[in-house]
Amino acid sequence: MSVDSTENAVSAEAPEDQDEARNDAQDADKGTAASRLEEEGDVAADYLEELLDIADIDGDIDIEVRNGRTYISIVAEEDSAGLESLVGRDGEVLEALQELTRLAVLSATENRSRLVLDINGYRQDRAGHLQKIAEDAVAR
């Protein structure tokens, strides 16, 4: 076999090997991204748990990773005025807590977070309300 035919054989296999290497790298990146999001969720949950303890407010913290984001929900088994105070008027306190939580994650992980914080389903209720307003406006 000549040198030219050996080089052609190697270069013919190289794209397949490159594709496999690229796929392996993408899988590793997905695994890394998922573990990074889980770490964000853990840091955020610890921060919020401490905040709830300081404020003497009862609530359960749920962490969910989907669509490349970490979603943190604080819910109470019974109506809790304490949790409602963490939402505030028009969700202002909720937005502030979300930003503080993102800063806590940034401080701990040195990665900027896009986490979403929800308290007692406020965001879902608000989205439903806004959708109803939009549907009513379209119906007119």
Tell me what the structure shows.
It is a single chain. The chain is of the alpha+beta class and 140 residues long. It has a single domain, classed as GMP Synthetase, Chain A, domain 3, CATH 3.30.300.20. The protein has helices at 3-55, 81-87, 92-109, 122-139, and strands at 60-66, 69-75, 116-119. Strands 1-2-3 form a 3-stranded mixed beta sheet, sandwiched between helices. Helix 1 crosses helix 3. The chain is globular. The N and C termini lie far apart (79 Å).
Main beta sheet, described? 3 strands, mixed
Shape-level CATH architecture: 2-Layer Sandwich
Strand order of the biggest β-sheet: 1-2-3
Mean pLDDT across all residues, rounded? Answer: 83
The CATH superfamily is K homology (KH) domain
Question: Would you count the extended β strands for me?
Answer: 3
Low-confidence stretches: none
**Beta-sheet strand percentage?**
5-15%
| Helix-and-strand structural type | alpha+beta
Give the end-to-end Cα distance, rounded to a whole number of Å: 79 Å
Order of helices and strands: HEEHHEH
CATH class: Alpha Beta
How many discrete structural domains? Answer: 1
Q: What's the Cα radius of gyration?
A: 24 Å
The percent of residues in helical segments reads 55-70%
Described by the principal axes of the CA atoms, the overall outline is globular
CATH topology-level name = GMP Synthetase, Chain A, domain 3
Notable features of this structure?
3 strands, alpha+beta, 4 helices, 140 residues, 69% helix, GMP Synthetase, Chain A, domain 3, 13% strand
